[in-house]
Amino acid sequence: MTSEDIAYVAVDWGTSSFRLWLVSKNGDVLHEERTDEGMSVAAEIGFSAVLESHLDRDGLSALTPVIVCGMAGARQGWVEAPYVETPATLSEIAANAVSPKDARREVHLLPGVCQRAEGAYDVMRGEETQLLGLVLSGLEDGIVCLPGTHSKWVRLEEGRIAAFRTFMTGELYALLSGHSVLRYSLALPEDFDQVADEVRSAVAQAIEKPEQATAQLFSLRAEDLLADTSKERLAARLSGHLIGLEIAGAKAFAGNAGLQSVVLAGAGRLATLYGAAFQAAGIEARTVDADDLARRGLHAAAGHLFLKG
Amino acid sequence: MTSEDIAYVAVDWGTSSFRLWLVSKNGDVLHEERTDEGMSVAAEIGFSAVLESHLDRDGLSALTPVIVCGMAGARQGWVEAPYVETPATLSEIAANAVSPKDARREVHLLPGVCQRAEGAYDVMRGEETQLLGLVLSGLEDGIVCLPGTHSKWVRLEEGRIAAFRTFMTGELYALLSGHSVLRYSLALPEDFDQVADEVRSAVAQAIEKPEQATAQLFSLRAEDLLADTSKERLAARLSGHLIGLEIAGAKAFAGNAGLQSVVLAGAGRLATLYGAAFQAAGIEARTVDADDLARRGLHAAAGHLFLKG
Asked: Mean pLDDT across the stretch A228-255?
């Protein structure tokens, strides 16, 4: 790779992670970097400084443009890229990118998407770019699940983000396993297959009786005190309860058409976990790699903003 | 008060609080102390040392016996007082008190109660003593709600603790308001009346759609970003969602007879909050003071163990 091959730099800048790709004109990734210089870190050091430190090392010319998605465009980020409202199209998202004044090169921050429906206020930042990638890969209509700290469920209609709903599944798991009374009773299973049944049965239980959610949580602690269930199985059950509760809510979100199939935008452990959960819920899931989608979305936005045919 | 008037010392020793009462033979409280020397603190200093430091100051003879309920009897406490199983009677609880060997006087630690039913494992420590107090005040059958960090719902049958269920309501509120992304969006209302409607509507919503629980949580954050709803109203709604979810679960717990009325063992802000929630849920609630119940329960147990007619 020479710096001439590089058409632009793509960055997915989250709250706690920074991912950078050097990309050729036709979208090939020539180089990839991942660090923990997320928004929280960059807000102290300076966003431009963090970005340029990477590009300096890569020996990049100041003429190479950068496209960024994620929390760097939040109010507490580099500069605010105000939300585009649902229903949101691909071209609207690219058209509403903003450029920070203190950047030492051409930088475009993509906006997030918001939903203002009464009682269903919601926001996303970063996932809209993955959804762009998905639409460009041919999915124009359907239900998409993007699991994570704040899991998003999205209804795509004619290539637009029609509506979405965020579930605090990942953050609740982190809080409960790290800071609640349950922290003494859980251990991460080394081999997922050994606890997959636990996940599935907890998912089914949560879908059937979502109102028992907060009682099921404490019951894990009690079971640890009273029975000899392993902490790995209890942790699997906690995951299952929270994901099951999410799926129960997503079923209502999917509406009358029901939730027969879903596109799961994930990877690794989380995709495996959600895969088992969808199995238990009788939902057909097709998994697509979330990172790959983000890069495709950034490439599409780059095409809109500065890549010339 | 002279030390001759004092028949015994009653202690409610929780995880983070220590409450002590000097009590006359007929159950009158002659003196009360409250500190934060809960189990976590006492485990470091020593339980006997904490207790004796109070009794020394009070000038109490080494002949005065002490009765203790709460987490001091847990495995990580002073000495373990193993759980009594449901259905549990008053006399069983008193009969299963244990005495720590390193105590410098007669000390009785009351056991907690556990439930081993498959899929509904549960434990309590401290609440059983409040329930004793309630039974002695004449309630032998009914549903009791003891709100708190780990809210307990109990079915009393013929004066026994027949079954119970714990909801993590208070702990979830603390985690979400203190450590989650919601922490930026909430503020404690100074005047409860101003937000009572928010609590009631969130309770009704959670009872109607418990499966939306974790989505409703994130929606509070989004509403803070997108609308000009006050942080006090959002905090009230968070309380309402969590308590509503608890009530939805408690309705199933109450069984076929339904949940028309409940005894609410609480005090202060929490009792007001739950009172509003029960109103929204169409449940008739009678409030009794929880501290008062604990003291009555301890007095009853003292009667069983050492108070002579």
From this structure: 95
Interacting residues of B292 by C-beta distance below 8 A, sequence separation 6+: B133
For residue B29, list its beta bridge partners.
B23
Question: For residue B56, what are the CA distances in angstroms to B38, B62, B67, B164?
Answer: 19, 9, 17, 39
Q: Which of A116, A219, A246 sits opposite B122 (nearest CB)?
A: A219
Hey, are the CB atoms on B115 and A165 less than 8 Å from each other? no
Which residues between 87 and 116 in chain A have a beta carbon less than 8 angstroms from any beta carbon of chain B? 114-116
Q: For the segment B159-185, what is each residue's pLDDT rounded down to a tens digit?
A: 999 999 999 999 999 999 999 999 999
ipTM for the whole predicted complex goes beyond 0.90: yes
- In terms of Cα–Cα distance, which of B118, B113, B117, B121 is closest to A222? B121
* CA distances from residue A273 to A188, A230, A242, A266, A277 in whole angstroms, order as listed: 13, 18, 11, 10, 6
A244-272 burial, b if ≥16 CB within 10 A, otherwise e? Answer: bbbbbbbbebbeeeebeebbbbbbeebbb
Q: How far apart are CA A98 and CA A140, in angstroms?
A: 26
**Dist. CA A278–CA A290, nearest whole Å:** 17
- Which stretch of DSSP H or E encloses residue A143? strand A142-146
Instruction: Please state the separation of Cα A140 from the chain's center in Å.
Output: 19
Residues 6+ apart with CB under 8 A from A250: A143, A145, A153, A165, A167, A259
d(CA A66, CA A96): 15
Interface touch A226/B180, C-beta < 8 Å: no
Domains and CATH numbers, chain B: 3-137+297-305 (3.30.420.300), 167-290 (3.30.420.310)
Return d(Cα B220, Cα B173) in angstroms, integer: 13
- A26-32: long-range pairs with CB below 8 Å, 24+: A27/A295, A27/A296, A27/A299, A29/A295, A30/A1, A30/A5, A30/A6, A31/A1, A31/A58
Nearest CA in chain B to A123: B222
Cis status of the peptide bond prior to B87, with omega within 30 of 0: yes
Strand partners, B165: B153
Lowest mean per-residue pLDDT among A119-123, B118-122, B173-177, B223-227: B118-122
- The verdict on B138 touching A (C-beta cutoff 8 Å) is no
Nearest Cα neighbor of B152 from A213, A208, A227, A218 is A218
Q: What is the bridge-based pairing of β-strands A151-157 and B160-167?
A: unpaired
Question: How far, rounded to the nearest angstrom, does the alpha carbon of residue A53 sit from its chain's CA centroid?
Answer: 26
At A196, which helix (H) or strand (E)?
Answer: helix A196-208
CB atoms < 10 A from the CB of B153, how many? Answer: 25
pLDDT band at A258 (very low <50, low <70, confident <90, very high): confident
Q: What is the pLDDT of residues B121-171, one digit of tens each?
A: 999 999 999 999 999 999 999 999 999 999 999 999 999 999 999 999 999
- Residue B128's contacts (CB-CB under 8 Å, 6 or more residues apart) are B69, B84, B88, B93, B110, B111, B112, B113, B161, B297
CA distance A244 to A200: 9
Residue at token pair 């790959």: A292
Residue A197 CB-density burial (10 A; 0-12 exposed, 13-18 middle, 19+ buried): middle
Question: What whole-number distance in Å separates Cα of residue B114 and Cα of residue B93?
Answer: 11
